[in-house]
Write the structure tokens for this entry.
Amino acid sequence: MVQKKFLTIGSLIAALSVIIGAFAAHGLKSQLSDYQIGIFETGVEYQFYHAIGILIVAILADKIPARKINIIGWCFTVGIILFSGSLYLLACQEILNANLRFLGSITPLGGTFFIIGWGLLFWNALKLPKS
């Protein structure tokens, strides 16, 4: 069950990375400055990297206890929402005609979830039996 959940989430988020990246490259390029495109691209990159992390979590679901693998997978998922989501909105705030600068304080929180997820994965990998 855990494996299927994170395989589904990871593959969906990876596909969305491609879609969002293509949208930015083709649909937003003329509306955003180079700086804003850079912010947006950072969001896409981190979203894709952590989608792969979620897929790794799915692969390891039968090797690490379900409770722990759930925490790791959700750390990556929440990190994507907070980190990448805030960068997308920050990059597009002029288009949205909104002052979203407060989201700048949300981005590091998403990064913290990424770090926690990778740290927990590392810690649990150390506990795996030698093969």
Remarks:
- The chain has a mean pLDDT of 96.
- The longest helix spans residues 2-28.
